[in-house]
Amino acid sequence: PEVGEDIKIMGFRRRVGDRNIIELTIACAFVSKHVSSLQDYIQKKERLRENVQRIAERIAGSEYELFVNVNTADKGDNVYLTLTGLSCEMGDDGSAGRGNRGNGLISPMRIMTMEAIAGKNPVSHIGKIYSVLAFRIAEDICKLGAEECNIYLQSKIGHPINKPAAAIADIIWDNEKIKENRTKIERIFQEHLDSIPELTNEFIKGKIFTL
Q: Could you tell me which residues come within 8 angstroms of residue 106 by beta carbon, excluding any fewer than 6 positions away?
């Protein structure tokens, strides 16, 4: 319960000589009512670090060395302790920030949308609808076995939202596999485009969260 809702994770993967290294830096707002003292904070922060280390090692596998750091800006008794568990108490605020995308990721070295989904019309705002739709399409294509998939959707003013001017899949996969699965990939696109009314209802009912 001491771990607040506002958690940011920066991942850095690199190769040093023959070593594959992943560094994770975590900024986690702790909730003050669940922390009894500075020593208690330090112990709970270390417990969080150990849990993340264990989970990350399981996901990354033995190929990588994992290094995890939590709340690296802590200095002495000036620590990341908040009343609400939100970073807005510590000067990190904004109505719709860089992380307010449908998948919660800030990924400047990867293909990403510039749109935040918070505060946008769920019926007609293309950036809001297409950003979530593209993520779901890519996810389903990867379930077919693709190594990686980036989706590009372009709207056209005056045309129905479910009929984009361009719908492109940039897939990293064996060419023969792409050819074999072309019909399935096209069906995934069409099914998701046809499901936009249901997606709008998910937004309205609060089933899709801005992370």
A: 98, 99, 112
Domain spanning 3-90 has what CATH number?
3.30.300.340
The tens digit of pLDDT for each residue in 52-62 reads 999 999 999 89
Read off the tokens for 201: 């209802």
For residue 159, the Cα-to-chain-centroid distance in whole angstroms is 30
Strand partners, 20: 15
Tokens of 102: 């449908």
Classify strands 166-172 and 148-154 as parallel, antiparallel or unpaired: antiparallel
Q: Which residues of 35-65 are buried (b: 16+ CB within 10 A; e: fewer)?
A: beeeeebeebbeebbeebeeebeeeeeeebe
Average pLDDT of span 162-182? 93
Q: Retrieve residue 93's tokens.
A: 């605020």
Indicate the average pLDDT of the chain.
88
Which three-class secondary structure state does DSSP give residue 143? Answer: helix
Each residue's pLDDT tens digit, 95-109 = 555 556 777 777 778
C-alpha 88/C-alpha 82 separation (Å) is 9
Q: What is the amino acid identity at position 37?
A: S
Yes or no: is domain 94-211 CATH 3.80.10.10? Answer: no
Could you state, in order of their start, the residue ranges of all structural domains in the chain?
3-90, 94-211
Interior CA angle at 169 toward 168 and 173, to 5°?
155
Q: What is the pTM of this model?
A: 0.66
- Which strand (E) or helix (H) includes residue 182? helix 182-194
